[in-house]
Amino acid sequence: MEISIGRGKTARRAYGIDEIALVPGQRTLDPILADTHWQIGGIDREIPIIASAMDGVVDVRMAVLLSQQGALGVLNLEGIQTRYADPQPILERIASVGKDEFVSLMQELYAEPIKPELIQQRIQEIKSQGGIAAVSATPAGASKYGSAVALAGADLFFVQATVVSTAYLSPESVTPLDLTQFCQQMPIPVILGNCVTYEVALNLMKTGAAGILVGIGPGAACTSRGVLGVGVPQATAVADCAAARDDYYQETGKYVTIVADGGLITGGDICKCIACGADGVMIGSPFARAAEAPGGGYHWGMATPSPVLPRGTRIRVGTTGTLEQILRGPALLDDGTHNLLGALKTSMGTLGAKSLKEMQQVEVVIAPSLLTEGKVYQKAQHLGMGK
Known about the structure:
- This protein is α/β, with parallel strands linked by helices and 387 residues long.
- 35% of the residues lie in helices and 17% in strands.
- Strands 6-7-8-9-10-11-12-13 form an eight-stranded parallel barrel, surrounded by five helices.
- α5 (116-128) crosses α6.
């Protein structure tokens, strides 16, 4: 339904994750029967959660630990890990500087050139410890370092930008990355993103991508929506792109994984994204709170260090538990940020969904009061959902 903003301009209503709720059906099941396994790029994982390619979230150690836990972590190939042989002092500087000096420090630190030999070294370090080597670069970075990534034996390549499309216009002096050619030539699966619409998702699927990332600007440390005014709330964005996936599958027989990327903090957020059609999710700030995270209790977006127009900030998220507690429990917090797998399984049991495919089919209602109804005391005392 279109809504009139004014003469000559109409708009479609879009919904965020906080505005919807999941409705139990006629069946329930024991959470132990809920199967959360999924595949991305032919790799099977028990937990449909990917850690974002952000420098405060994933380093070699975290990538290995996430793999061991049954999840997945993506290493940023254009970040601190590939600019400095020893990233630890750099990460400590980022964590210690005041907020007024932060942007200029980030621009200084990220001006250090990327070293191709460190790209191969980081991938090999992950592989040698038995981890899944999933890495990320911008389209420009993918064009420059794609062959090195393949040679190093990476398992998955995420090509990410604020917005990625197959119809990119560039100056005559610049040759843009041909996404179709890149997906065909890379010997490993390629995941493309980000997008938020049916049409762009469908076009990206036609390139041969193994997966599509959905989300523009909802991340905890991202300021793109404020700086650029661009974005679509996640519930609507995921549902639209999932529809493209289903139509593409009906037409070609090829199933392209949809990953909801950004804006997800709690187990309930993850459950609702899957109910909107996502196969899995990508999250950053919840993992930045792990004791093992490289950010030391801080979290910042991939576009934060831009030398001309930063579209991210550094936020203090603190350290609330180990990676295992955040993923598998036992939960030490009552706000839905610990034991994310347990939350997903329990929600699936409550909804009667035995698989993620069944979870995608549960009833969804518009519920703007979902997080506030009856929560006066929690809000007043800053407990549970009132934190």
